[in-house]
């Protein structure tokens, strides 16, 4: 029996597990992190060894921003090279993880706040594969992506995430992939190997304190956090994956931060593990 057939035979439902699967927010940064062995990718690889092996991975990536909500539902999602100006070695990467059509359909059924489209055209963009290929290099775990509706605000995404909570009970690793501070127009190449502008560091510290203190409402209402927040989040797509991670936290869970570093002046790699 093929691996894909084994995966699809789980449905009805993935069996309930005794413990919740952790949930992650990953600051993914440059696509080059997908092929470099650096401090960020090394942490991603180590993280996979430190958490239970998932039955599947569901990624909410900054790079799939759509009208409406969609989930990949093909047998084998393609590797999308959605960037330009990088070395050929990056374009040559293929990450041949299987999809999980039955789980995609079941996940769509969990969401009652909107109709979720089953997508057969997208695949795995660099917000997904550059991270997951370090975590699961054998590409033997199904990977799906859930898109974010660009017509909706942060509160909508935070609340939609709560509808996915059952997946944590069934061994699905849900991973938000973006960056808390992400302003490429202000990026400094002189600081590309490390360092942040004062406003970026100040805002990143504010984000971290709110996360650690479980003050989610202020993070949802980020537009009220001042000028630094508007510099950190000039457009919302890299911030909104954090809403999915936080929306999946229950009040009794601890969390930790990792890869807490600014690069390029105006981007932070700060990442969150819950559970």
TrEMBL record:
> Per its UniProt entry, which superkingdom is the organism in?
Bacteria
Q: Name one Pfam family in it.
A: LigB
Q: Which cofactor is recorded for it?
A: Zn(2+)
Q: Residue ranges of the Extradiol ring-cleavage dioxygenase class III enzyme subunit B domain?
A: 38-248
Alphabetically sorted, this entry's keywords are: Dioxygenase, Metal-binding, Oxidoreductase, Zinc
Membership in a protein family: Belongs to the DODA-type extradiol aromatic ring-opening dioxygenase family.
* NCBIfam families, per database record: PRK10628.1
Q: Which GO terms describe its molecular function?
A: ferrous iron binding; oxidoreductase activity, acting on single donors with incorporation of molecular oxygen, incorporation of two atoms of oxygen; zinc ion binding
Protein name, entry field: Aromatic ring-opening dioxygenase, catalytic subunit, LigB family
User: Which InterPro entries does this entry report, sorted A to Z?
Assistant: Extradiol_dOase_DODA, Xdiol_dOase_suB
Q: Does the keyword Transport apply?
A: no
């Amino acid at each position: 029996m093929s691996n894909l057939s084994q995966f699809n035979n789980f449905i009805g439902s993935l069996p309930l597990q005794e413990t919740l699967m952790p949930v992650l927010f990953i600051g993914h940064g440059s696509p080059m992190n997908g092929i470099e062995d650096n401090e960020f990718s090394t942490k991603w690889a180590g993280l996979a060894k430190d958490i239970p092996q998932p039955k599947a991975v569901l990624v909410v990536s900054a790079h799939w921003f759509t009208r409406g909500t969609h989930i990949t539902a093909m047998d084998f999602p393609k590797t999308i090279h959605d960037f330009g100006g990088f070395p050929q070695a990056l374009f040559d990467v293929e990450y041949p993880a299987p999809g999980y059509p039955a789980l995609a359909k079941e996940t769509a059924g969990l969401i009652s706040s909107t109709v979720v489209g089953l997508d057969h055209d997208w695949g795995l963009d660099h917000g997904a594969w550059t991270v997951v290929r370090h975590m699961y290099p054998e590409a033997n775990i199904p990977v799906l992506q859930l898109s974010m509706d660009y017509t909706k605000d942060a509160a909508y995404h935070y609340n939609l995430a709560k509808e996915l909570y059952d997946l944590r009970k069934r061994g699905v690793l849900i991973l938000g992939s973006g960056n808390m501070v992400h302003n490429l127009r202000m990026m400094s190449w002189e600081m590309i190997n490390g360092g942040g502008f004062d406003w970026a560091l100040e805002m990143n510290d504010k984000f971290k304190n709110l996360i650690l203190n479980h003050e989610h409402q202020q993070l949802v209402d980020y537009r009220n956090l001042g000028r630094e927040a508007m510099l950190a989040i000039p457009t919302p797509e890299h911030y909104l994956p954090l809403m999915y991670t936080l929306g999946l936290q229950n009040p009794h869970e601890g969390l930790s931060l990792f890869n807490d570093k600014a690069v390029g002046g105006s981007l932070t790699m700060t990442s969150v593990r819950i559970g």
